[in-house]
Amino acid sequence: MSAPVPQQMIDRLLCLEAGDDVWQLRAARLSDWLELNEEGRIVDAYVAVSVEQRRVGVGEGVEWGAPRLEPAFTALLTLARDTRPSRRPARVEVDDPELFAGLAPVLETCGIGCTLVEHTDQLDVPIDELRHELMGVSPRPPLFTHVSSERLRSLSASFARFAETRPWLRLGSIDFIQVEAPVGDDLPAWCSVQGGVGVHKGLIFHSDEDEILAAYDGSLTEDEIAERECWVVGLETPDALAIEDRRRWKREGLPLVQGVEIAIPSHYLGEKGFAPVTPEQFDFFDAVVRAVAESTDEDLDEGRWERTVTTSAGEVRVRLALPQLLPPNEGIPARDESLDDREDWQQERTLRDMARVMEGQSFDGPAQAQAFLRSRLRAGALPHPEPATARERAEDLIHEANKCDGRRRVQLARRALREWPDCADAFVIQAEEMPDRDLALAFWGEAYAAAVRAAGGEDAVRESAGHLWNQLDLRPYLRARSGYGEMLLISGRVDEGARHLFELLSLDPSDPMGVGYPLLRELLAERRHDAAAELVKIRFTTPPFGPWATLLIEFSRHGDAPETHEAFALAQRANPHVAKYLSGSSPLPDSEPEESRPGSDEEARIVAIDLMPGWEAQPGAIEWLQGVRKQARREGKAKRRKR
């Protein structure tokens, strides 16, 4: 039996009203047409059904094998939220003795009975419907009827190498690669690497250079580019194949990449959907995938390189280029600085230039210094002095890097480190561009260590406590330590991350990096309410975040008590619109609005998005808020009637 169900999931089920319905739960083999490995493991999902309401809940797919409690419980929790009204069952029936042995004690703590039955008959029809929906209807026609098994095996081997070397860690979606050889009328000459968390891994090819330039200079977004005709060559789960292709894959024992995915090339035609690629294109894609997979950091930094690779068609010489790393006259032109140059970096460079111009000057007082500076500005733009030290050369490279995207930005950051190994901002850039969470955390850690060294140690930073942002040489320290602390929170190392961010707030209470917001969100989500209360006193003394966070903290401490009702009144005065989002009366938007006014609905959405994880984590909090809102509305109506 797998690890126990997280307490947070149990609490979420306990938050719901107790019902009288009987549910059934089963592990279903939704892709039983395909074995995943030599042990015969098969993808499965846990499916729960409400006998009374005929609604279905599904847990995430896992390898077939010993029952796993967490995805099984996820199916129950999904179904509970989908019932009307949301409620938990009175009893759950299962037909797997091992699942029953693990699940029954967990459900007992929720006041839910669990029964072992011979067959969960109510799930037969829903599972058949679900299998047909997920596996029987493909968005693509058969893609491989004209492709030999040798070609399919070769592409799988190329993608196995691609998955092993993870080129998406070195190239972002904005790093367009030009394929200079081989070339042909029906061979697309441009591609970009896809990968990272939650992204299908592979290459997207385009034949129109103007589209690439439009995406690069910002006149077309990546989403707009994705809607245009292109060739998608990537790794997909087996259910992306048409049934005919699936049967062939199984019949011929064709390989799966890393045991779970299939390499699929297809021609995307916009609204017309997908079409097969030609055999010539298939060989071309195979060679390019292999060449990209085997390219090194040194290759990429050269801007143009060659690889000879072996495919089912024999040896192929592939020449690739990253035009954005080549001289400006040789490929994609430099980007328009007005699109990407960040105002804060430009201001910081101006301040550094002012400091360099003033360095070595002797003034009788502030007035004379200001007069000198005004005279220099009247003469024209403030000159940028030639860097005189390794640190200044590194800072100039970082400024240039922050005008760029992708590989060019990383390349300049690495050059800055060669100039000055304690350049914390160079590590920050590499952390920001790194899609792998563990590797990004390592870069953030190096950034923080370099920043401490450059500042002369933590004691030297503490001696400058106050408004650290006003001290240019300490800005890299703020950037590095705030990023490190936030990444520690994201990585689940909450105690370490909170320590770093609390210390930053003590060093500069003005919070120039805005670390208070992610810290408050995480502390409430982890139900660390004492620490959250301390943070509110330090950072959120003004509305609206402080009062709404305090309301949750008071509820966690006192429940439905006078103190909590008093906190609710204060939160309502801070912004009355927040309650409708936290209580679920109005759906939360997917993203925060760009602008807001105090007390506005836009401000309420910003608050609710940040605080909702904490409200969901606290048992009974959302239900209590729903009740107190109803009571407040009833009292308001009664007062109006008396008038």
Mean pLDDT: 84
As laid out across the biggest beta sheet, the strand order is 14-13-12-11-10-9-16-15
Sheet-strand content, in percent, reads: 5-15%
Tell me the number of helical segments per DSSP (H or I, 4 or more residues long).
27
Q: Outline the biggest β-sheet.
A: 8 strands, antiparallel
Beginning-to-end CA distance, first to last residue = 64 Å
pLDDT < 50 stretches: 32-43, 333-341
What does it look like?
Strand 15 and strand 16 (314-321) form a beta hairpin. This protein is 51% helix and 12% strand. Mean pLDDT is 84; it is low at 32-43 and 333-341. Helix 20 runs antiparallel to helix 21 (516-525), helix 21 packs parallel to helix 26 (601-617) and helix 22 runs antiparallel to helix 23. With 643 residues, the chain is of the alpha+beta class. It contains 27 helices and 16 strands.
